Every structure is written in structure tokens, then in C-alpha cells.
Amino acid sequence: MQTSSQILAGLVGVCVGDALGVPVEFTSRVERLKSPVETMRGYGTYNQPPGTWSDDSSLTFCLAESLCSGFSIDAIASSFCRWLNEAYWTPHGEVFDIGNTTYDALERLQQGFPPVKAGGTDEYSNGNGSLMRILPLAYYHKTLDFPKLIERVHQVSCITHAHLRSQIACGIYISIAVCLLQGMAPADAYLQGIHNAQEIYIHPLYASENYHFYRVNSGEIDSLPIDDIRSRGYVIDTLEAALWCFLNSSSYSEAVLKAVNLGEDTDTTAAVTGGLAGIYYGVENIPKKWMNQIARIEDIIDLGRLLEAAIDT
């Protein structure tokens, strides 16, 4: 698979998963079992037309666009604020979904806090708001050594989510994504990804947090029964659920629909799942009928080309 298709597949993979989940966000798993999502829906939770994506994709695109001009934590933070204040990189010119932790952090940014000090650091600031948008950093795996890449992942997480737990979740996710970009199959990418990440997180700085990741780091997250997989907005739940859906599927569509039909934080679980599934299965295996419904799809395709060009220079 060519780098260009991997970049576009990851961005579209996030976005399509997100859009599939938006209409049923906050619905229960019981509701989803009764009426499973099988294709792109509209309206529902936020009364948005089919193909509408949320803050998950908006902030992913803000990060990707910022990276087109090189890595600048200030530029990334400014782009996030532009999204909030100007509805930049939104599907229809309005911000209709934002987490409290992200909102509070962006408010602090606008009060003059430096980006790496803006994100919440308390125990309750471990929502999935940085994990959902972190994928574009994986594409720099060829130009940065692994510890430097993970350092930047941590910095970008800290813009909104600065607790070590959120930083580690982002680092593990990017580590697995990098292994997929290197051509590994899902199970191998998962095992190698957690191994590579553990070489970073063995440092005493992270010792107090590692037990939160014991199910992911066991190498057996995919063997858990569905009833043991939680799908609310907690960052650990989202990482576990996304890996479980990805590893227990054999296509992009199966992976993201499995994620949506877990219920609760449907858009983010599917977006995080969709990023990995998009990279592995390729943009050509994301259903065209879904892609054709995505708002601003041509802009997203153009963004993928810009990021490809930036990485190649």
C-alpha cells in the first residue's frame, strides 16, 4: 500500500466511523442490539444530516492540516481554538459537539496558557478527547525516531488532555498504528505495538499509571467477551473497545459497525477504530456509498494530498 493511500485511508477511516456514530451517540447497547446501525444514518442525537462528522474528525483534520507546515505545538493549539471560535474544519459551519475537558483546555489556551500546560491533569480529565484526534502523528514514523514521535504525541495530547493516562493511551494507539503502516497484520501490529510502547512506558515516570493498561498490555484484549468491553467516554474504555473491534473484524465496515453498535460514545469509539481499520484495509475498502455521503469529502481528499506532500518533502 502506498503512503498516500495510507494517509487518506486513515483520515477517511476516522471520519466515516465518526459519522456512522454521530446519529446514535449516547444510546445504550441494548438499544443498538434492538436496532443495530448497518449503514449511514442521519439526524438522531444531534439532528444532523447523514455523513455529518463531529469534533473527533474536526480536530483530527485541524491537526493534520497543521502538520502540513511542520510540527508546531502553538500552531496546532491555535487551529483547535479556530475550530471552537470559527467553526473551522466543521462539516456544516457549526460546532455541535465538544467535551467539557476539551472546552476548558481551549478556554485556558485563550487566556494565555502555553499549549502543553492547557490540558487538564486531574483524574477526571481522562476522557477520550485527545485519543480521538491523534492519528495524523503516526504518519511521521519514517522521519522521527520512535521516542521523539511519542514525545510529540504526548505534547499534542497535553493541549487538551495532559494527564499521564491520556498521554499513554495516545502513545499506545500511535505505536500500533505505526506497526500497521509498516505493513504488519492486525494481530502482529497489536502485539508489536504494545511491546514498542512498553519500552517507553517502563520509565518510572509512568509506573503509577501502567496498571490501568493491564488489559491492553496483556496482548489478549481481543479475547475478552463483549460484555467485558466498555464503550463510554473514558480513554481506557475507548482504547480497549477500538482495539477489540479492530482485532475481531475482517473488514473496515465490520470493524466500525461493531464499534458503533457497542453503544454509548458511538462516534468516538468508531472514529478511533476507523483510523486503524482505514490504514489496514485501505481507502478502496471503505464502502463508497458511505464515503459519498461524507460532508466535504473533496476537502478531506485534498487534505490527505497536502499531508502526503508535506511528509515527502
TrEMBL record:
Domain of life: Bacteria
Alphabetic keyword roster: Hydrolase
InterPro entries (UniProt xref): ADP-ribosylglycohydrolase, Ribosyl_crysJ1, Ribosyl_crysJ1_sf
Pfam family, one: ADP_ribosyl_GH
Record-stated family: Belongs to the ADP-ribosylglycohydrolase family.
Record-given protein name: ADP-ribosylglycohydrolase family protein
